[in-house]
Structure formats: structure tokens, C-alpha cells
């Protein structure tokens, strides 16, 4: 087993770290406070190959592997979580799905636009009444005699929904078939019948715009089907496996930022005549933070490695996301506690890390869903 990274992986990590520290982190407080979408920074990430990391060069991407994706995501998330949410959806949920299941024309048009940073993508699965139970969707796509589909319905919690040019949509084409009656479509948000609804005011990742979207007699061409009719649910699940590696990496980045700020603080802050880092209760927290951080990173790299081998990685991705998101919540909680009043104050980023970490236990499959996936894989029972 070799724990070292390749030169290319380290180069991409370095590019991501530089942009994150020089451009993203300095404006993170502003973006969190105002909720302003960080379009300029997202373009910069795109120009540097970070919006299509695993996309081959022939479709405008960086042509790197899933390990490089993890390393870059961690750096961007350590700069600001909201930026890494947008990056994760573009890379994992949009590009990854179209690359695996899309037609050559879809790859050339849509993957290229997102990978080159010219447009922003989104992924629409969740509905107001169906989140974890994704097959309970009501959005309908009815096939017409000429092969087109007429789409009606609502989707909610759509990351980048307010700004996305293209969206991968999952809709019921055959409700009698349940999971096997769902089809994936490529949506162009400039076409008639597409509407954006209310924007969600959120606890954290406030600069990553999230909204409801609605389809009213939107007409999708036969060529807009991604993969085959009825394969949408499996496509969504496979794409979410990849997405979970991205969210695990995001959680690690947030946790690392909180951990590094804490290391600095415990060296400087004095109480009872000594640096608080010399107290055993602080030392125990630091040691536990580091163990959780390293465990989360190694499990996430393992999931990325299995993905890179072209094998099924659903279980590894669920284990990584569950471990990393719960580690991020615990680490940011302890970081706030160690900083005391300063941890609670908006003058320092600790409270933001704490708020940002929470979403990693919720989106792209809650911790409960990750446990369900892992237990089903381990026991073979359903
Ligand atoms: N890869 C490929 N196929 C898969 C799969 C995977 N990971 N998981 C399931 N499937 C297949 C199954 O093999 C099965 O196929 P057959 O019909 O051929 O047997 C089919 O899909 C149905 O599978 P299940 O019976 O297991 O489906 P289920 O209804 O029991 O659901 C679930 C399983 C794990 C609960 C799933 O619904 C799930 O993951 N739910 C969570 C959804 C989720 O993560 N939502 C996040 C929203 S998106 C988001 O947050 C994006 C954002 O903007 C940031």
C-alpha cells in the first residue's frame, strides 16, 4: 500500500489551496453575511480546471482522478464551505452523471460548459414531499407521440438552482414501475416552462444559492433523456455515490479549518498562568479532533481509490460521508467550545464552520440514509 500522492495530484491540490487561501477565504465572511453568490471565484475555479476535475480534457476538464478531486475539494472547503458546495455539485452530481450515462452530444455541450466554468449545473431529485424516499417523487414527464416529453412538477432544495444554466432532472415517466419508472433529463433553464421559486434562507453555506424550481409544460426533446428511459433512479443513486465522496471531502475541509484555528488558539490563549493547550482537558480534545480528521480523510481517500479502480463504491462512499460529516460536526463543536466567547462571536470564523458543518449530515443522503446503505451492504438484508 502506498500512501503518497502523485505529482499531478499534488499540483492540483496546490492550485486549489492557493485560490482558496488567496481569493476564497478572505471573502468568506462577506459571502456568509450577505449570501451573495460568489460568481467571480466560481469562474476562477472553473478557469483552473476545478469544476471538471475528473472530466477528460476532450470535454474541457482537468482529466484527473477521484483522489485529486478529494484533495482539491478539501482545500476549497477549508477556504469556504459554500464555494465547495457549488464545486461539488458541478463536479460530482452534474459532470460525473453525464460523463457516465450521457450521449456524446450531451458530453460535448453540457459537460464542457460546466467543466470550463462557463455555466453552472444543478441536480434535481428532491421534492417538497420526497427527500430520503426519493422514489416517492411526483414530478411527471409524459411521453408524446413525437417522442418528446412534457414535464410538470416541483423540485425543492436545488443547490445552485437560482443560477444554474443546466440541470439534471429526475422525473416519473412510468409511475406504475416505481424506481424503474424514473427517467433522467437534461434541462436548459432558458427554455419555456422552467420557473425558479423561492430561495431558501439557510443556517450555513449561505452563499451557495438554493431554491425551488417548477416545471409547467416544459418540453424535453427525446435527445434530452440522459441514459435510458426508466434508468433514472439507478443513475441518481450512482451519481450520489460519487457526490458523497465530494461531501465527505467538504466536511474534512471545514473540520480542518476549525482544527487549525484551534491549534493556533490553544498555543496563544493563556488561562491560570499557562497556554490552554497545556491543560489535559484541551489536550484530549485536540487528540480526538486529529484522530477523527485523519480517519475521515483516509476513509474518503479509500472511497475515491475504489471509484478510480472502476469498481462499485457505494458502501465505501457511505462510510466516508457518514464518518466525515459526523467528525466535522463534532470537531467544529469542540472548536467553538475551546474558543469560548470568541468561538460564539462572529468576529471569528468558528461559528461559521459550526453552522456550515451541519449540512454535511443532511444533504446527498442524511446520516440515517448512510447507515441504512452501510447496514444493507454489510448484512445483505433489506
Ligand atoms: N448504485 C446503483 N444502483 C443502485 C444504487 C446505487 N448506489 N442504490 C440502489 N440502486 C438500485 C438497486 O439495485 C435497485 O435496482 P433493481 O430495481 O434493479 O433491484 C434500485 O436502485 C432500487 O433500489 P432500492 O430498492 O435500494 O431503493 P430504495 O427505495 O430502498 O432506496 C435509498 C434506497 C438508499 C433509501 C435511496 O432512496 C437513497 O439513497 N435515498 C437518499 C436520497 C438522497 O441522497 N437525496 C439527496 C438529495 S440530492 C442533494 O442533496 C443534492 C444537492 O443539491 C446538494
Any overview of this molecule?
The structure is a single chain. The protein is an alpha+beta fold and about 375 residues long. It has 3 domains: about 5-120, Butyryl-Coa Dehydrogenase, subunit A, domain 1; about 120-230, Beta Barrel (Butyryl-CoA Dehydrogenase, subunit A, domain 2), CATH 2.40.110; about 235-380, Butyryl-CoA Dehydrogenase, subunit A, domain 3 (Up-down Bundle), CATH 1.20.140.10. The chain is built from 12 helices and 10 strands. The chain has helices at about 5-25, 30-35, 40-45, 65-80, 80-100, 105-115, 230-270, 280-310, 315-340, 340-345, 350-360, 365-380; strands at about 120-125, 140-145, 150-160, 165-170, 180-190, 195-200, 210-220, 225, 270, 275. It has a 4-stranded mixed sheet. The chain has a 4-stranded antiparallel sheet with strand order 2-3-7-6, with helices on one face. α1 runs parallel beside α4 (about 65-80), α4 packs antiparallel against α5 and α7 runs antiparallel to α8 (about 280-310). The longest helix has about 35 residues, at about 230-270. The radius of gyration is 21 Å and the shape is globular. The two termini are about 35 Å apart. The model has no long low-confidence stretch (mean pLDDT about 100). Bound molecules: acetoacetyl-coenzyme A. Acetoacetyl-coenzyme A (CAA) binds near residues 123, 126, 132, 364 and 369. This is 3-sulfinopropanoyl-CoA desulfinase. It catalyses: 3-sulfinopropanoyl-CoA + H2O = propanoyl-CoA + sulfite + H(+). Its cofactor is FAD. Keywords: FAD, Flavoprotein, Oxidoreductase. Pfam families: Acyl-CoA_dh_1, Acyl-CoA_dh_M, Acyl-CoA_dh_N.
